[in-house]
Amino acid sequence: MKRRQVLGGVAALTAVGYVGAAAGAEPIRIGLDAVLTGAGADIGERIRRAAQWAMDRINRNGGVQLPDGSRRPLELVAVDDQAKPDIGLNAIRRLVDDPTVVALLGPDWSSVTYPTLFVGEEAGIAQITSSVAQRITQAGMKHIFRARSTDADWMAALADYIVAEGHQQIGVTYANSEFGRSGRAAFVRALKERRNLAPAQELSYAVGDTDFTAIAGRLVQSGVPAVCNLGNEPEGALLIKTLRQLGFRGLFAFNSADSIFAKLAGPDAIGVVGSLSWVDTKSDAASQAFVGAYRAQFNETPIGHSAIYYDAINLLADAIARAGTDRGALLAALKSTDAWGGVQGNYHPSAPTGDMIHSCVVIRYNQQLVPEVVAVRD
Amino acid sequence: MLVQIVVSGLASGATYALIALGFVIIWNTAAVVNFAQGEFAVAAMFVALVLSRFGHVPLFLALPASVAASALLGWLTERIVIRPVIGRNAMTVVTVTIGLQIVLSDGAKLIFGGQPYPFPAPFSGAPLGFGGVVLPRQSLLVILAMALLVAALHAMSVLTPFGKRLRAVAQDREVAAMMGIDVNRTVAQGFAVSAAVAGVAGVLLAPVIFVSADLGLPLLIKSFVAAIIGGFGSYPGALAGGLLIGVIDNVVSYAVSTDYRDVISFLVLIVMLLLRPTGLFPNHR
User: Fold this and answer.
1) Which of chain B's ends, N or C, has fewer CB atoms near its CB within 10 Å?
2) Which helix (H) or strand (E) holds B129?
3) B100-125, pLDDT tens digit by residue?
């Protein structure tokens, strides 16, 4: 046997033993609360898949090395909140009541996260969420971290882009829901603070509306060259379709211009501008390495939530390696982390509010309905 | 622009009218207010979606098949859910149909999730223009289908033995039975026809508003209001009520605000019930 083969064999045996040692150890459990059934389950399943995949990659490399030098694998404990606060409360209580769960991920829906925040705070357990409602990190709770930029960041980026495109007269439409009103307030504030502009026209609609002729008609009559819509994908798709039918050829910006919107709007999505926390077409090295590995693993393109929860697991693994598995020590380790680099960009877990990241992108759909990144904000 | 708003309102109202027609058929046949009527439309949407998108069945086959499936659902509804409670307290029957609405809606959410699905239009292309007023081809199709269905239902009611059986059962079930009419069978067929009409509305609407599990209730509410304004039990009334609601919705949204749209629609309903409780066309069945 050649010397190189002997060395290779020894290395392989060492690696197997290394991984095996971690695999045989008691796993470190991380809880995940997500929407796994009912409305929103599609994204919830993407979240669970990304978190599990991040753990699998860590475990394949021997798990997490703790401060005492031992190695332990990670294990995901996923619970379903069905996007309902009462069910979410019970699900999160189950996770928190399990003393082997060292940290929490989720929820994703703000309507579940906000009323259940106290559970994690009382337990002193670190919680990383993707919910965007501003008030979640404004309640003064020290255990909550947000791994996603919020509508204040997105709207600032969007306002900058629209004005930079030469549009001063901007019509604003928004869904009469918390999400729509919050987006509208953030956009109008960004427009005022950054560009000293006010909307030329403001119109609201109800979630679930299906006929947008009246709103589109008023926008077309007003002659605004740009419209910024704040709401959900179905209404946004119907609004742009109606605007195009009535002859509107201006810029349409939308705060939910994701792949769901593009599918619903079809060719009418061409040219639509949107702001997202992260998109798979972001060209930086970390994003492209993540997208390539994700596609190789799942044969599909990752969404923003994939990057958020992939990063969250890796951030927690990094903190566990430094602080161990005690909930309090882990929370303190996160709070003392000034900067950490992930797929989405630079995180700042030590931020007083828990808003760890402010990076976002402005995208514009091209002729092939691919969201091209036209601006990056970090 | 106001003409455009009115024309678009007519297109929206046509869909309310179609579902309201289904209400009227069941009411005229079984004296039952079926609050699951909107779900028949949604069921047809999802059958068409599954056949065309996942089964790759051509639209010209998927659309009639989904209407037939909706008719089957209506027939099964009568056999399994309605027949055991017919003749009991009116509240019992109403409660059963409300329960059925919730079961069908939540069942669709469990199977398909809450997200909307795009659906291809059978006639794609640029909207048609008439003197500055644009009308999407699908909206024109909805208006034409509504006009054809109203005419066909009227002809069926007046000219066919089946229509005469339906009317006989509606007028007096006991006398109809004494005359040799199989009342149960006729009522079940009435449910099937009603669900088929809702199914037509569903497949016509699918390309316009997408397919989603939570569409049934909003469609139901507007259509119910349309049927009451028209005169519950009247085919022309359902048509007029649906169109009126569609136009009022759009004109209010345009001239005032969408925030006041439902307020004004329901004010019209209240005023109508106060001034003319029998509706616009109480005697036209």
Assistant:
1) N
2) strand B128-130
3) 999 999 899 888 877 789 888 877 66
pLDDT band (50, 70, 90) for residue A4:
low
Give how far the C-alpha of residue A307 lies from the chain's centroid of Cα atoms, to the nearest Å: 7
SS (H, E, C) chain A: CCHHHHHHHHHHHHHHHHHHHHHHCCCEEEEEEECCCCCCHHHHHHHHHHHHHHHHHHHHCCCEECCCCCEECEEEEEEECCCCHHHHHHHHHHHHHCCCEEEEECCCCHHHHHHHHHHHHHHCCEEEECCCCHHHHCCCCCCEEECCCCHHHHHHHHHHHHHHCCCCCEEEEEECCHHHHHHHHHHHHHHHHHHCCCCCEEEEECCCCCCCHHHHHHHHHHCCCEEEEECCHHHHHHHHHHHHHCCCCCEEEECCCCHHHHHHHHHHHCCCEEEECCCCCCCCHHHHHHHHHHHHHHCCCCCHHHHHHHHHHHHHHHHHHHHCCCHHHHHHHHHCCCCEECCCCEECCCCCCCECCCCEEEEEECCCCCEEEEEEEC
Query: For residue B223, which of B242, B236, B248 has the smallest C-alpha distance?
Result: B242
pLDDT at A327 over 80: yes
Longest Cα–Cα distance of chain A, Å, equals 84
CB contact under 8 A, B115 and A42: yes
The alpha-carbon gap from B125 to the nearest alpha carbon of chain A, in Å, equals 11
Is residue B70's pLDDT more than 80?
A: yes
To 10 degrees, the CA torsion angle through B222, B223, B224, B230?
110
List where CATH 3.40.50.2300 sits in chain A: 2-149+282-358, 151-276
Residue B86 to residues B92, B94, B188: CA-CA distances in angstroms? Answer: 9, 10, 12
User: What is the nearest CA distance from B233 to chain A, expressed in angstroms?
Assistant: 27
The pTM of this model reads 0.79
The answer to whether the CB atoms of A210 and B208 lie below 8 A apart is yes
Report helix angle B216-230 to B261-275, nearest 10.
Answer: 30
Cβ separation of A210 and B249 shorter than 8 Å? no
Residues 6+ apart with CB under 8 A from B115: A39, A40, A42, A260, B212
Q: How many CB pairs under 8 A join A and B?
A: 88
**CA distances (Å), A32 to each of A93, A128, A353, B175, in order?**
12, 9, 21, 64
CATH architecture of A2-149+282-358: 3-Layer(aba) Sandwich (3.40)
- Running DSSP on this structure, what letter comes out for residue B118? -
Nearest to B211 by CA among A234, A242, A175: A234
B142-195 pLDDT per residue, tens? 888 888 888 888 888 889 998 889 888 888 888 888 989 999 999 999 999 999
Closest chain A residue by Cα to residue B262: A206
Residue B19 neighbours by CB distance under 10 Å: 29
**Class of the domain covering A151-276:** alpha beta
Q: How far is Cα A333 from Cα A320, in angstroms, rounded to an integer?
A: 8
pLDDT score of B266: 86
Q: Which two tokens stand for residue B261?
A: 């749209």
Provide Rg for chain B, Cα atoms: 18
ipTM, 2 decimals?
0.81
